[in-house]
Amino acid sequence: MQSLGVFFDTIIICSATAFVILLTDVYTTVGDNVDGVALTQESLSLLVGNWAVPFIAIAIFFFSFTSLVGNYYYGETNLAFIKEGTIWLQVYRVAVMGMIIFGSLAGYARLGSSRRVYGVYDCRQFNCDSNDWSNFVCCYK
Protein backbone atom coordinates (compact mmCIF):
# COMPACT_ATOMS: atom_id res chain seq x y z
CA MET A 1 0.00 0.00 0.00
CA GLN A 2 2.91 2.33 0.68
CA SER A 3 4.08 2.04 -2.93
CA LEU A 4 0.67 3.26 -4.10
CA GLY A 5 1.11 6.35 -1.92
CA VAL A 6 4.54 7.04 -3.41
CA PHE A 7 3.13 6.62 -6.92
CA PHE A 8 0.22 8.93 -6.16
CA ASP A 9 2.45 11.60 -4.60
CA THR A 10 5.12 11.48 -7.28
CA ILE A 11 3.26 10.90 -10.50
CA ILE A 12 -0.20 12.35 -9.93
CA ILE A 13 0.34 15.26 -7.53
CA CYS A 14 3.72 16.42 -8.83
CA SER A 15 2.65 16.17 -12.48
CA ALA A 16 -0.62 18.02 -11.81
CA THR A 17 1.29 20.74 -9.96
CA ALA A 18 3.77 21.11 -12.82
CA PHE A 19 0.97 21.30 -15.40
CA VAL A 20 -0.87 23.94 -13.37
CA ILE A 21 2.28 26.07 -13.16
CA LEU A 22 3.06 25.59 -16.85
CA LEU A 23 -0.49 26.48 -17.93
CA THR A 24 -0.01 29.96 -16.54
CA ASP A 25 2.86 32.35 -17.15
CA VAL A 26 3.28 33.06 -13.46
CA TYR A 27 6.72 31.49 -13.34
CA THR A 28 7.97 34.05 -15.88
CA THR A 29 6.15 37.15 -14.61
CA VAL A 30 6.38 37.11 -10.81
CA GLY A 31 10.14 37.24 -10.53
CA ASP A 32 12.53 35.35 -8.31
CA ASN A 33 10.76 36.02 -5.00
CA VAL A 34 7.96 33.49 -5.61
CA ASP A 35 8.78 29.78 -5.71
CA GLY A 36 7.61 26.49 -4.27
CA VAL A 37 4.14 26.43 -2.78
CA ALA A 38 3.62 30.16 -3.29
CA LEU A 39 4.18 29.68 -7.03
CA THR A 40 1.63 26.87 -7.07
CA GLN A 41 -0.87 28.97 -5.13
CA GLU A 42 -0.45 31.91 -7.47
CA SER A 43 -0.81 29.73 -10.57
CA LEU A 44 -3.87 27.91 -9.29
CA SER A 45 -5.53 31.14 -8.16
CA LEU A 46 -5.19 32.49 -11.70
CA LEU A 47 -6.83 29.36 -13.11
CA VAL A 48 -9.69 28.72 -10.64
CA GLY A 49 -9.97 31.80 -8.45
CA ASN A 50 -8.83 33.14 -5.09
CA TRP A 51 -10.21 30.18 -3.13
CA ALA A 52 -7.17 28.18 -4.35
CA VAL A 53 -4.76 29.92 -1.96
CA PRO A 54 -6.37 28.71 1.30
CA PHE A 55 -7.19 25.36 -0.32
CA ILE A 56 -3.51 24.68 -1.09
CA ALA A 57 -2.49 25.81 2.42
CA ILE A 58 -5.01 23.44 4.03
CA ALA A 59 -4.01 20.60 1.70
CA ILE A 60 -0.32 21.07 2.57
CA PHE A 61 -1.19 21.07 6.28
CA PHE A 62 -3.09 17.78 6.05
CA PHE A 63 -0.45 16.21 3.81
CA SER A 64 2.28 17.17 6.27
CA PHE A 65 0.35 15.98 9.31
CA THR A 66 -0.57 12.61 7.85
CA SER A 67 3.00 12.13 6.60
CA LEU A 68 4.36 12.82 10.09
CA VAL A 69 1.95 10.37 11.69
CA GLY A 70 2.54 7.71 9.04
CA ASN A 71 6.33 7.94 9.18
CA TYR A 72 6.25 7.91 12.97
CA TYR A 73 4.22 4.69 12.85
CA TYR A 74 6.60 3.08 10.33
CA GLY A 75 9.60 3.96 12.46
CA GLU A 76 8.01 2.73 15.70
CA THR A 77 6.94 -0.54 14.10
CA ASN A 78 10.42 -1.10 12.68
CA LEU A 79 12.03 -0.30 16.00
CA ALA A 80 9.72 -2.71 17.82
CA PHE A 81 10.78 -5.38 15.33
CA ILE A 82 14.50 -4.67 15.78
CA LYS A 83 14.67 -4.13 19.55
CA GLU A 84 12.61 -5.41 22.42
CA GLY A 85 11.74 -3.28 25.41
CA THR A 86 10.08 0.03 25.97
CA ILE A 87 13.20 2.11 26.61
CA TRP A 88 14.07 2.19 22.91
CA LEU A 89 10.53 3.23 22.02
CA GLN A 90 10.70 6.06 24.54
CA VAL A 91 14.03 7.22 23.09
CA TYR A 92 12.54 7.05 19.60
CA ARG A 93 9.50 9.09 20.64
CA VAL A 94 11.65 11.80 22.20
CA ALA A 95 13.91 11.83 19.12
CA VAL A 96 10.92 12.18 16.78
CA MET A 97 9.50 15.06 18.80
CA GLY A 98 12.92 16.70 18.75
CA MET A 99 13.16 16.27 14.98
CA ILE A 100 9.70 17.74 14.49
CA ILE A 101 10.57 20.77 16.60
CA PHE A 102 13.98 21.16 14.95
CA GLY A 103 12.54 20.82 11.44
CA SER A 104 9.82 23.34 12.16
CA LEU A 105 12.18 25.89 13.67
CA ALA A 106 14.82 25.43 10.98
CA GLY A 107 12.17 26.00 8.31
CA TYR A 108 10.79 28.95 10.26
CA ALA A 109 14.15 30.68 10.53
CA ARG A 110 15.00 30.07 6.88
CA LEU A 111 11.75 31.28 5.33
CA GLY A 112 10.58 34.84 4.88
CA SER A 113 7.77 36.22 7.01
CA SER A 114 5.04 35.54 4.41
CA ARG A 115 6.04 31.89 3.98
CA ARG A 116 6.58 30.70 7.56
CA VAL A 117 3.43 28.61 7.48
CA TYR A 118 5.20 26.00 5.34
CA GLY A 119 7.80 25.14 8.00
CA VAL A 120 5.70 22.10 8.94
CA TYR A 121 6.15 20.76 5.42
CA ASP A 122 9.93 21.09 5.78
CA CYS A 123 9.91 19.15 9.04
CA ARG A 124 7.86 16.38 7.38
CA GLN A 125 10.69 15.82 4.91
CA PHE A 126 13.25 15.86 7.73
CA ASN A 127 11.23 13.22 9.60
CA CYS A 128 10.89 11.03 6.48
CA ASP A 129 14.64 11.04 5.95
CA SER A 130 15.29 10.10 9.57
CA ASN A 131 13.19 6.92 9.34
CA ASP A 132 15.10 5.46 6.40
CA TRP A 133 17.67 3.74 8.62
CA SER A 134 15.05 1.64 10.38
CA ASN A 135 13.54 0.51 7.09
CA PHE A 136 16.98 -0.53 5.87
CA VAL A 137 17.73 -2.56 9.00
CA CYS A 138 14.36 -4.34 8.91
CA CYS A 139 14.88 -5.41 5.31
CA TYR A 140 18.12 -7.17 6.19
CA LYS A 141 17.26 -8.68 9.56
What does this protein look like?
With 141 residues, the chain is mainly alpha-helical. It folds into 2 domains: 1-50, no CATH class; 57-141, no CATH class. Helices cover 81% and strands 0% of the residues. The protein is built from 7 helices and no strands. It has helices at 2-23, 26-29, 37-48, 52-82, 86-110, 119-130, 132-139. Helix 4 (52-82) runs parallel beside helix 6 (119-130).
Essential attributes:
mainly alpha, 141 residues
Query: How many beta-strand runs?
Result: 0
The radius of gyration computed from the alpha-carbon positions, rounded to a whole number of angstroms, is 18 Å
Structural class: mainly alpha
Q: Report helical residue fraction.
A: over 70%
Mean pLDDT: 76
Helix and strand sequence: HHHHHHH
Helices, by number, come to 7
How far do the termini sit from each other?
A: 22 Å
Range of strand content: under 5%
Largest sheet report? none
Inertia-based shape: elongated
Query: Which parts are unreliable, with pLDDT below 50 for 5 consecutive residues or more?
Result: 113-127, 133-140
Domain count: the total is 2
